[in-house]
Each structure stands twice: as C-alpha cells, then as structure tokens.
Amino acid sequence: MGSGHTHPAPSAPPRVRRILVVTVVPLFVATVLAAALLWPRGGSPQTDGGADVPRYPGTVTRVVSEPCPSVPSVPEGTPRVGDGRCGTVDVRVDDGPTAGQQVRTPVPDGPGAPRVEVGDEVILVELADPTDPTTSNWNIAEHQRGTPMVWLAVVFAAAIVAFGRWRGLAALAGLAASFAILLTFVLPGISAGRSPLLVAVVGAALIMFVVLYLTHGVTAQTSVAVLGTLGSLVLTGVLATIATAATHLTGFGSEDATTLSMFQGDVDLHGLLLAGIIIGSLGVLDDVTVTQAATVTELANANPGLTRLQLYRAATRVGRAHIASTVNTIVLAYAGASLPLLLLLTADSRPIGQILTSEFLAQEIVRSAVATLGLIAAVPLTTGLAAVVTAAGRTNATASTDAPAPRPQPDRSEALAALSSPRTTGSDEPDRTRTAPPSQATDRWPKSNRSTDTAW
Fold it and tell me: Which stretches are transmembrane (predicted)?
C-alpha cells in the first residue's frame, strides 16, 4: 500500500482513457484560457486606505502600572471602552532608523489591546504630532507573531510529511499552489473589477485541476473526481445565484463587506458573496469526490464480479454516511467562523423570526444550505461516473478469471470417516481397543510431543 491510503488503481482500458482525455483536456484548456482572459493586468487598483504608518519591531524592557485617574460617573448601562489600565511601557526599538533607542509608550488600553510584559516582542507605530510635526508619539500596536507562526508551520508540514510521506509532500505542494492562485489571480481579479462569480468559478476550477492531479496523480480515478468536482461546482454556482436572488441578499451581511465598500466602492458585494460560496465549497467537494472515486475502485478490486449498478449502490451507501457527517462539518465550520455574530444576535430583543431572516444570519443560512446541496449532488454524480469508468471494458470471462477460486468442498465419505475415527480415552494416546489399524490411528491423530502449528 505504500504511503497512500488505497491500492494503486488498475490501468483503465484504452478506450476509457481516450474518452477521459477527450473530456478532461478541453475543460482544462478552457479553464486556462479563461484565466488568461480574466487575469488582472496593470496591478490592482489603489485604494484610499489612509497614510502608511511606520511600524518597527521592539522589545519591552520595563512596564510601570499606575492607578487610572478618576473619571466622571457615566450613566448605567454605558458599555466600557477599555480595561482601565494605565501606566507607561519602555520599549527598545530593534530595527529602523532609531534602532537601539529606548522609547516610552502608554500602556495599551481599549478593546483588543495587547497585554505586555517585560521581554515581549511587540510592533511599534510612530505617530507624528499634528500640532508639532517635529515631534512624534510611540504606541504599541500588537505583538510580533512571526516566530510562533513559523514554528507552527514547520510542525504542520512535518506532521503531514511524516504521516503521508510522498503523498503528504504532494498535498503541501497542492496547498501552496492553492494559495498562489488565490493571491495572484482570484483576489487581484476581483479587486480589478472582474465579475467575482466568474473569477471564483475559473479560479476554483484551476485550483481543482492543479491540486487533484498533483496530489493523487494523473489517473482515470483522479479524472473522474475532477469531472465530478467541476460539475458540482457549476451546480453550486447556479444554486447560489438562485438562492441569493430569491432571498434578496445584497452582500452587506458583514462588517468586513461594509468596510470594503468604503475603501473600494466598485466591488460587487453580491458577486463577492457568490464567490465566497464557490471557494468555500471547493475544499469539501474535492474531499467527497476523491473519496467516492476511490471507494468505487476499491470495491471493484475487492470483487471484480460486481456490475456497474452494484458498484454504484454500494459506493452510494458509503457516500450517504460521508455526507451525513460532512453536513454537520459545514454548518459547524460556518458557525465557528461567525461566533461573534451569533452572540450578538442572541442579545437581540427582536423576535426569532426576524433574527433568522435578517441580512446577517440569512447570508450564513443560504451559504450553508447551498454548499450542502452541491455536496449532496456530488455523490451520485461522481459515483455514477466512477462506476461507468471502472466497469468499462469488463466481460464476464475476465471477471470469472480474476475472481478468487472457490473453496474446495470436502467429500461426504471423508467427513463420515473422520466422524467415525477413534477418539482418545481421556489421555493424549488414542484408544487402542478400537479395530482401526495402529498406522491409521497414528496418522490421524498427532502425538503429544508433536506441534500442530503447521497443520493449523
């Protein structure tokens, strides 16, 4: 079995390989041509994100806490802005024009402000005083996270390679290719004003081709998974378009989308919502399609006599179990990513019906429902294609030749003779009072000092 989780798939008949090549290659070429046409040129448009504030790494050398000054009483029910932390922090600048200099900053306070201690590595920002440009104020923006994240990435990659070996290394290469396509094509293409839905479909198809063939090899089984994934992606896009139009979703269902519209007003947020559904569905879809294609192949290897219909029914039962757990995975993944939103909605005093149909929550419900429908459609589509490809070219003769030989049935007379043979009288020695010849008794029953491991 090697490092993979399945046996190597047998080579498909030449006729089947030609059909797959004629089907998959034009789709790949069309995807590459569409990506070339949609590829952003001239760089992404510049957004008005404000002045670029200088940021320098530093190390905390001293923390002095002080009691906060008294403030006038505030009305009851007014939310607290900060934790009430006051004092100063001395930080040594580690890089930049003022490297080695000790600067003093106020203790970070406010929502999400970092808690610092001596020895912490932080990021400093230098803000010029509006009244006096010659002077500047220093503040701690956040902690440095580069080193912990590098170690986490190393452990992540080492675990995948240690468990998956060459297949794990290929999976890491596929992950790198996915991020490269997202960062160089999908995100810049949407920022450049291209149709988010079209860019997402082409980008997802490009990721699918690269990742699946790179991870699982150029085989008929992988080609079936590619076709099943591509068909399910198109169906998911159609369902997402219909569902968002029927529910009148605008795409302004999150604070991030609203902020993006302020800095880049020409982005189609409705299309961006559709693009997010497509990209989010891809990761689960290729898992299901690869599993279904591999299941059909393994069933055919285990029992070459199975027909296409039998392969389809058996693999579909596996797919039902997979879908039952994956649906819960999708819903929990979206719920985990939206926990602050869900907590905010639970504090809402509106009726539950209005909360469920609000833009914020309806967007997540539609996202989960559409992704699940596309996932369900992927099982019969991929399983049917895999059953046709796996069973193609087989005949009853080859099936009977490849099938294991049946166990020989014992002769009835031999069984009766064995039942009537002499038995022991309580010891290991055979009963000598029987009329059977000693030679037969010795051959039939093993001696007490003779091992029976070989016979068994």
Answer: 20-39, 146-163, 170-190, 196-214, 226-249, 269-285, 323-345, 365-389
Q: What is the DSSP letter of 94?
A: -
Delimit the CATH 2.40.50 region(s) of the chain: 55-66+85-143
Largest distance between two CA atoms of the chain: 123
How far apart are the C-alpha atoms of 245 and 267, rounded to whole Å? 18
Over the stretch 148-179, which tens digit does the pLDDT of each residue have? 999 999 999 999 999 988 888 988 998 999 99
CB 49 within 8 A of CB 263: yes
Closest CA to 141 of 80, 227, 55: 55
- CA atoms within 13 A of residue 191's CA, in its CB half-sphere: 17
pLDDT confidence of residue 407: 53
Residues counted in the chain: 456
DSSP 8-state assignment for residue 104: E
**Run means of pLDDT, 10 residues per run, the chain, 456 residues:** 46 75 90 91 55 82 84 54 74 87 88 86 84 79 90 94 89 91 90 86 92 88 91 91 90 76 78 87 87 90 87 91 81 76 75 79 86 90 90 52 50 62 52 49 46 37
Q: Quick one: three-class SS letters along 305-345?
A: CCCHHHHHHHHHHHHHHHHHHHHHHHHHHHHHHCHHHHHHH
Separation between Cα atoms, residue 64 and residue 90, nearest integer Å:
8
- Per DSSP, 376 falls in state H
Q: For residues 247-273, b (16+ Cβ closer than 10 Å) or e, as one string?
A: eebebbbbeebeebeeebeebbbbbbb
pLDDT of 9 reads 53
Rounded distance between C-alpha atoms, residue 104 and residue 124, angstroms: 11
Measuring CA to CA, which residue among 296, 267, 282 is closest to residue 236? 282
Q: Does domain 55-66+85-143 have CATH number 3.30.70?
A: no
CB 250 within 8 A of CB 176: no
**Exposure of 209 in the CB half-sphere (CA atoms within 13 A):** 16
In the chain, % helix, strand, coil (3-state, to 5) comes to 55, 10, 35
